[in-house]
Amino acid sequence: MLALLRLMVFGFLFLSVIYVALSLYSRSVRSAKLRQQWEDDGRPGERDAFVAAGLKEYDGSVRRKLILLVYIVPIAVMSTIIYLTNFN
Predict the structure, then answer these.
(1) Radius of gyration of the chain from Cα atoms?
(2) Residues contacting 51, CB < 8 A, separation 6+
(3) Best label site of 38, 61, 68, 86, fewest CB within 10 Å?
(4) pTM of the predicted model as reported, rounded to 2 decimal places
(5) What is the C-alpha to C-alpha distance for residues 41 and 60, in angstroms, rounded to an integer?
(6) Which of 32, 3, 18 is nearest to 67 (CA)?
(7) Are 35 and 47 contacting, i.e. CB atoms less than 8 angstroms apart?
(8) DSSP assignment of 31-45, as one string?
(9) Alpha carbons 56 and 33: distance in angstroms, whole number
């Protein structure tokens, strides 16, 4: 039982590190795309305000929520493997 608890704690910490890294990477890619879009659109208004508005819109997007699958998929796969190994 202690081994399972240790696996869960370290697994959660590992998945949290992956989640933070993936989230920061995705946000930086979106920011770069917004800067490029600002350049392509002929520089309408101030760049920082344009990027901030785009990132605020990104915060509510589905893509950002899909990053939460970093937690769900490994736990579901591991649970399935444990179930099939022990009860099948």
Answers:
(1) 19
(2) 31, 34, 35, 38
(3) 86
(4) 0.83
(5) 23
(6) 18
(7) yes
(8) HHHHHHHHHHTT--S
(9) 14
Name the amino acid, one letter, at 4. L
Contact 27, 55 (CB under 8 A): yes
Q: Which two tokens stand for residue 7?
A: 């696996």
User: Would you say the C-alpha torsion 42, 45, 47, 51 has a positive or negative sign?
Assistant: negative
Exposure string over 58-77, b if 16+ CB within 10 A, otherwise e: beeeeeeeebeebeeeeeee
Q: Which of 35, 5, 33, 23 is nearest to 65 (CA)?
A: 23
Tokens representing residue 33 in the block = 């795309």
Tell me 42's DSSP state: T
